[in-house]
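User: Sequence in, structure out. Go.
Assistant: Echoing your sequence, followed by the structure tokens.
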Amino acid sequence: MDAESTLDEAYERLHRTGPEFEGWLSNHGPMAVEALVRRGHAGHVHRWLDRYMERLDELPRGLSPLAAEDWRAALGEPRRLGDWLAFFAREVEQRPWRTVLETWWPRLLPGIAAGATHGVIRTGHAVHALLEHEDAARRAELGQALGYWAARWQPVPLTAPAGTAGPAAALAEVPRVPDQSAGINHRLDQLSGLAGWPLALAALRPAADAGQARDLLAEVITAAALNYLPNAHGSPVMLVHSATAPMAVLRTLPALPRTLWVGSLHAAWAASAAVTAAYAPAEPAPPGDLPAAPGSADEVFELASRHGDEHVIKLADTCLEVYAHTGRPEALAAVVRSAALIEQLPV
């Protein structure tokens, strides 16, 4: 079986399940299998799914059909999750997927924190798969991703970049929320009253055009991936999303009009900074406590695949992109640290 068929079969299995389980934990299956297939580990996908799907819930039922003109009232309403999934299933069946994405991206982007950023992350993986090969299973996956994003839509306070700092320097100055005792919603709710939050977002240098926005977004991802290495102990799982959320946006840009790229940078930067503010530790780990980078990128993804945790797999996928573009070994070492801190998926 070729890799494309493996991914489509995995999507078909996963589309019988809901985007959340055990309350509102995100179903990472579609994101992880797309990364595994693209990174040459298609042979591992179905065995990985056999274990992962034991945790998942059934596809949720809707309350009432959602009409196109009613979308504003239902945005960010988790009770309408089934309705949103059905709505976007129809959208991607009846309209070109790029048209659906172009219509809904600017509507959903302000709510980039949806599902702890998993709405945009799942969308980014789906778009990446569609750009490689278009078929019904992949269009359906995009519909599932957009429906999940719409139902869990959650904004973070935005301030457009207007400073002179590069992403690494700007990220280092992001203030921490004062109360890190509860979940992500409680932490993100504190951003609107957090002293220094607007200034921290504005400190990033602006992008003058679409090309600069794309390049600056790549730098944001690099900064977040490298920042994970010494700070992962703050929350080994949640801090992964400071890098994987902007990576999802970057991977979506080729399918979007260039007029949407600068706004996409702003939202992706805010999401990365928000996760950092919510979960960064009080102090980074001492350099002597950090792992060295393995000898090759392939070795790192093999480590992630063997480990099995979906967050380690997704971080590895992002960090390999960073390493390919920058040659920074810290990006590979970040994956090693995540594997050491995050519990391994049982075999």
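User: And one key feature?
Assistant: The first helix runs from residue 3 to 14.
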